[in-house]
Amino acid sequence: MKKFLLISFMILVTLLAACGDKSSSDNGGSKDRDVVELTFTTWGSEGHIAMYEELLEEFYEENPNIKVKIESIPHADYQQKLSVLAAGNELPDVGWVAERMVPQFINNQILREITEITEDKEFDFEDYIPSTLELWQHDGGLYGLPFSTPPMIIYYNKTMFEDAGVETPNELAAKGEWTWEQFEEVAKAISTGEGVNRKYGARLFNEWTNFATMPSHTFSYGGEMFSDDMSSFEWNSDEGIATFELLNRMMFEDKSHVPPGENVNFESGNVGMFTFMYSYIANVRGITDFEWDIAPLPKGPEGRVPLLGQAGLAAFEGSDHPEEALKLLQFLGSKTGIQASSQFFVPARKSVLESDEFINVENNPPRESIELAVINEMGNGFIYPLHEDWAKIESEIVSGFDKLFAQMATPEEILAEMEEKINPLLQ
């Protein structure tokens, strides 16, 4: 009898365990089915992706049923890639959008309106600097949140300046003497060596198709690229010709500028001054072979006019999970999200821009340099012209610079040809 009871008990335990396993399996399966995977696209570096992955751990704590897959697409291919994905109804849920992409994306109706998040008191939409939002507002709606609003700046090799016995850009700026004329002279003065040992005073192009610094020279002398209503090309002017002549002298007469097509970068220690956005600082913080700092662009008679490069966070139309996508966007654009990304980008939230956390990132330049080159210049800059055919317009401008680089035409001839080809695109 005891043996029979023992066997019966063991069978009962086994059955209960089996039921328990089945129940656990069912619950686990249900839980797995409830997990939503969102896609978040960027053109960011490994450092940017690592920052987001760490940041998202906090998002997962509040939203355990959401997982985010980060995809990085090269910046040069990003706009075309998203246009192709839109045609196939395969857009990501959330992603980065650069300022020049906004007109096309809004015109093609692939950006989702997100005005509802402005009503969330905890989100504190009023913390965003109003001027940074203009690009993302259309017909009374909001279509993105800026996370990066940097003015173009100069990274400079302090060691090269010291070795040449030349005042640095910040020293000249402090005296009110940091002009484009001084920039040209200084670049010549700090250039040394020949052949593979050549050290160049300047590099004004990150990529040879990226001419973003050059309009600043024109604007600072009172010129324009386009009419205010984007109906005519205005760079073919005395001021525009002077800009192209400056570049021509530095590249081919003084040889103080890195030659076209050569990839001598700032980090190598062979470039004295390099112009790019503040986000490039992630590449510079690890430099130990020479001393470096940042400075504002030079000024002309009309002051300094740096490009303000904007990038924003947007939710795309057609998401299978619109509610979860909006949660992700709201988190990335929150104070927490913008604070995290401010180690790479100039923040659009006032509270973050003025915070010690933004200034005191490890291996950052001194506070005085960041204030001089970045914070104080945010009200002086310009945003790229907006036109739905900007890709075609940009292609013609790049073609013009290619002719200058190849010495195929004079600045006057190049700008006249640009005007002839671009004006029809503006009609």
Q: Could you please describe the fold and organization of this structure?
A:
The chain is an alpha/beta fold. It folds into 2 domains: 162 residues, D-Maltodextrin-Binding Protein, domain 2; 201 residues, Periplasmic binding protein-like II (D-Maltodextrin-Binding Protein, domain 2, 3-Layer(aba) Sandwich), CATH 3.40.190. It has 17 helices and 11 strands. The strands form 3 sheets. Strands 2-1-3-11-6 form a 5-stranded mixed β-sheet. Strands 8-9-7-10 form a 4-stranded mixed β-sheet. Strands 4-5 form a two-stranded antiparallel ribbon. Strand 1, helix 2 and strand 2 form a beta-alpha-beta unit. Helix 8 crosses helix 9 and helix 16 runs antiparallel to helix 17. The longest helix is centred in the first third of the chain and has 33 residues.
| Uncertain parts | 1-31
Percent strand equals 5-15%
Structural class: alpha/beta
Please count the beta strands (DSSP E, at least 2 residues each).
11
CATH superfamily of the largest domain: Periplasmic binding protein-like II
CATH architecture of the largest domain: 3-Layer(aba) Sandwich
Report the C-alpha radius of gyration, rounded.
27 Å
Which percent bin holds the helix content?
Answer: 40-55%
Give the CA-based shape. Answer: globular
Widest sheet, order of strands: 2-1-3-11-6
In DSSP terms (H or I, runs of 4 or more residues), the helix count works out at 17
How many distinct domains? 2
Head-to-tail CA distance between termini = 100 Å
User: What average pLDDT do the residues reach?
Assistant: 91
CATH topology of the largest domain: D-Maltodextrin-Binding Protein, domain 2
State the major sheet. Answer: 5 strands, mixed
CATH class of the largest domain: Alpha Beta
Q: What is the helix/strand order?
A: HEHEHEHEEEEHHHEHHEHEEHHHHHHH
